[in-house]
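Example S7 (structure tokens).
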């Protein structure tokens, strides 16, 4: 199963061989784990990689309900879906983005950004739909108090835990993809910034048992980022598409306001009034003043940094627009005047003014072209 067209063969275990065949190598590892399910001696080990662990079955009025909590075995599951993310990344790149790139003929810098936005569009679309489904089915949307009530939220449903594991796996896979995709050095630092921020916030929400607030905030963030990357894709296809950036700007500011409001409501107000105060590692309770203030400070700093980048982006767009307007005015001023046409008598057109009210016509002197 080849994900890349091979125009040239490279020595085994060389750098170019690894970059060109990394998806095939990872696919072989995934097949190796799946084959382990077929044998009784290796099935238990293979399950660790495929299925979320630490399940607890409880009785409820609806019957038996299975919940999950986190532990060190989650690292094996994250590793498996880390490999899955690399494979899906290669599939989207080879069968979708590369075909579009051949038609657009973009420069190297625009090609890198186009691939980045294309990959993130697919991921943000899937994640936003998935997180919205969780928010609706778990009842977070219509009962905001459930975001902080009954804390700590140690027991998670399957869809919530699996969502967090796949989120961590995806953003972890984005780190080696910087190497596999040969991202330019000036782009690496920018991409590392948001990759590390996503990993930090998702891991903090998962480990501090703030999963409910985390799902809602991720939904808002992914919808906003989806709008930005769609606007950038349309811009690369046709640079006249600028209005979608204006629509994204409104959603961006709205997302920042709602994010800060929800965090202060859930963490600063809701958890502060909760009865379960104190630090208890066994119960998963991290409801202390220091941890709450640290979480709020982290979110506020991140949102402030994002707003600062947004303002710089808008100012740059405004300067580019003003520069284009000035260039157009200069180009229009340098255009030569169109020579006046002569009539059949040899006079300039509109050179002889017609008499009004019987007065004698006045001849307008014009220089010959």
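Recovered sequence:
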């Amino acid at each position: 199963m080849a994900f890349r067209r091979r125009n040239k063969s490279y020595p085994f275990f060389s750098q170019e061989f690894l970059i060109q065949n990394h998806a095939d190598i990872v696919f072989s590892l995934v097949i190796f784990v799946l084959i382990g399910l077929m044998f009784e001696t290796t099935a238990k080990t293979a399950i660790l990689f495929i299925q979320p662990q630490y399940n607890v079955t409880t009785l409820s009025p609806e019957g038996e309900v299975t919940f999950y909590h986190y532990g060190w075995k989650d690292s094996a599951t994250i590793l498996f879906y880390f490999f899955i993310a690399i494979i899906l990344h290669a599939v989207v790149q080879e069968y979708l983005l590369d075909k579009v790139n051949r038609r657009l003929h973009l420069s190297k810098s625009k090609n890198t950004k186009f691939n980045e936005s294309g990959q993130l569009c697919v991921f943000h679309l899937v994640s936003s739909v998935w997180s919205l489904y969780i928010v609706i089915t778990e009842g977070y949307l219509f009962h905001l108090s459930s975001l902080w009530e009954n804390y700590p939220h140690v027991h998670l449903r399957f869809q919530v835990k699996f969502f967090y594991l796949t989120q961590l796996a995806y953003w972890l896979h984005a780190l080696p993809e910087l190497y596999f995709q040969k991202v330019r050095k000036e782009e690496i630092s920018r991409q590392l910034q948001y990759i590390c921020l996503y990993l930090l916030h998702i891991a903090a929400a998962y480990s501090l048992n703030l999963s409910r607030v985390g799902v809602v905030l991720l939904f808002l963030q992914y919808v906003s980022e989806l709008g930005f990357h769609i606007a950038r894709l349309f811009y690369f296809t046709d640079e006249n598409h600028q209005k979608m950036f204006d629509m994204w700007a409104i959603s961006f500011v709205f997302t920042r306001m709602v994010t800060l409001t929800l965090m202060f409501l859930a963490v600063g107000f809701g958890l502060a009034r909760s009865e379960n105060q104190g630090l208890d590692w066994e119960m998963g309770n991290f409801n202390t003043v220091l941890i709450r203030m640290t979480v709020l400070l982290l979110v506020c700093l991140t949102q402030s940094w994002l707003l600062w980048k947004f303002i710089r982006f808008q100012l740059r767009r405004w300067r580019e627009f003003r520069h284009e307007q000035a260039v157009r005015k200069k180009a229009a001023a340098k255009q030569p005047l169109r020579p006046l046409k002569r009539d059949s008598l040899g006079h300039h057109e509109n050179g002889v003014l017609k008499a009004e009210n019987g007065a004698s016509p006045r001849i307008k002197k014009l220089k010959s072209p």
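Notes on this example. Residues 348-369 have pLDDT under 50 and may be disordered.
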